[in-house]
Specification:
Blueprint lengths: L13 E4 L5 E4 L5 E3 L15 H24 L7 E10 L5 E10 L5 H14 L1 H6 L4 E6 L1
Parallel strand pairs: 5-6
Antiparallel strand pairs: 1-2, 2-3, 4-5
Helix pairs in contact: 1-2
């Protein structure tokens, strides 16, 4: 099922020249960085890579989704921490694919409640909605 937007709230724009060994910038000039393949993939590791950017975006978005859900459930997620691990690997058709793992810690919240918040956030988060059914996403609550 394709998720269709009812109303666009924001559109980000970024341009890359040179792919994984290039340079990227956002249209507003705030984000400007060199892209490099990681050492594990034969690069020099002297820049960031698309998987790091995806991990950062997913973690930030998921934590914001937890805040929305937390407010609805009267659970304080203000001190929470989300660590995203995005893996790049090969898939059966000779192409490449991603997998994501989100590790969540919500200090001061019991484990069962934290799991409920994380499960509900996974339904709300735009990154979760974009990846659902497309890549393996593992959720872990500390």
């Amino acid at each position: 099922m394709v998720t269709q937007l009812h109303k666009t709230l924001y559109t980000a724009q970024a341009t890359v020249h040179g792919g994984r060994d290039g340079h990227g910038s956002s249209s507003d000039g705030v984000l400007e960085l060199d892209l490099r393949r990681p050492l594990e993939m034969g690069g020099d590791g002297q820049g960031t890579n698309p998987e790091q950017l995806f991990a950062l975006g997913y973690a930030a978005c998921f934590q914001s989704a937890m805040a929305v859900v937390g407010r609805r459930m009267s659970v304080d997620t203000g001190q929470s921490r989300v660590t995203a691990r995005v893996s790049l690997g090969t898939v059966g058709n000779g192409g490449f694919g991603l997998a994501a793992r989100l590790e969540v810690d919500i200090p001061g919240v019991d484990h069962e409640t934290a799991e409920q918040v994380v499960k509900a956030a996974h339904e709300v988060c735009p990154y979760s909605n974009a990846t659902r059914g497309n890549i393996e996403v593992t959720l872990t609550v500390a």
